[in-house]
Design goal:
Pathway: Cofactor metabolism; pyridoxal 5'-phosphate salvage; pyridoxal 5'-phosphate from pyridoxine 5'-phosphate: step 1/1; Cofactor metabolism; pyridoxal 5'-phosphate salvage; pyridoxal 5'-phosphate from pyridoxamine 5'-phosphate: step 1/1
CATH topology of the largest domain: Pnp Oxidase, Chain A
CATH superfamily of the largest domain: Electron Transport, Fmn-binding Protein, Chain A
Strand content: 25-35%
Order of helices and strands: HEEEEHEEHHHEEE
Shape: elongated
Enzyme class: oxidoreductase
Protein name: Pyridoxine/pyridoxamine 5'-phosphate oxidase
CATH class of the largest domain: Mainly Beta
Bound molecules: flavin mononucleotide
GO molecular function: FMN binding; pyridoxamine phosphate oxidase activity
Radius of gyration: 19 Å
CATH architecture of the largest domain: Roll
Subunit structure: Homodimer.
Length: about 200
């Protein structure tokens, strides 16, 4: 028991929910933006921002193009790290674990929940591959809009989502005099209670 820490010592998923909900009311835009770090099997890392589009005990879900740079890295090495930083709250959350692809039905549902223009923009994008000139992209957008003059655009099969199943979750809370608070949760199926163990880390 550590009564000096401001971070609860159990249930990191509920703690994520609480911090995420607070970020939703305090951040000026995209409180669901997170850095997604992936790596090649031989250890070359890369990182970019994506949007969190679903979360719960099963994991943290984002959507993307499976043929992008990140998609290739995930296919070869399905492990990743996520990072949220809510500056105005002085809070950071790091999450690490393995990834699995969402079902086609889930990907369809999310793809078709987006505005038609976003569907067209994604369908026209060979994400991460060289683009000879911006006009090429705009022409593809126009071609798709002409091919499907109204309503939803069919989801390209490479446009999909991934769910990160958390193995480690770390919460960082800025506190006065730089005496910050950090707590690391590690999933441990043999642990009593919620299946997580936790401990503090030096900041
Ligand atoms: C705030 C923000 C949110 C973004 N959200 C997504 C997203 O949800 N999915 C996505 O594929 N790209 C998203 N992007 C673009 C990515 O950061 C990145 O440029 C793109 O996915 C290509 O990355 P890759 O070449 O590493 O595959 C977002 C960018 C920003 C700045």
């Amino acid at each position: 028991m550590d009564d000096q820490s401001a971070i609860p010592e159990s249930d990191p998923v509920a703690l994520f929910d609480a911090w995420f909900a607070e970020a939703g009311t305090s951040e000026p835009n995209d409180p669901n933006a997170m850095a997604l770090a992936t790596a090649t099997p031989d250890g070359n890392p890369s990182v970019r921002m994506v949007l969190l589009k679903g979360h719960g005990p099963e994991g943290f879900t984002f959507y993307t193009n499976a043929e992008s740079r990140k998609g290739g890295e995930i296919l070869a090495n399905p492990r990743a790290a996520l990072l949220f930083h809510w500056k105005s709250l002085r809070r950071q959350i790091r999450i690490e674990g393995s990834l699995h692809e969402v079902t086609a039905a889930q990907a369809d549902e999310y793809f078709h929940s987006r505005p038609r223009v976003s569907q067209i923009g994604s369908a026209a994008s060979d994400q991460s591959r060289p683009l000879p000139g911006r006009q090429t992209y705009l022409d593809r957008v126009e071609d798709i809009a002409r091919e499907f003059p109204e309503g939803d655009i069919p989801r390209p099969s490479h446009w999909t989502g991934f769910t990160l199943v958390p193995q480690r979750m770390e919460f960082w809370l800025g506190r006065p005099n730089r005496l910050h608070d950090r707590r690391l949760f590690v999933r441990d199926e043999s642990a009593a209670g919620d299946g997580w163990t936790s401990g503090l880390l030096y900041p």
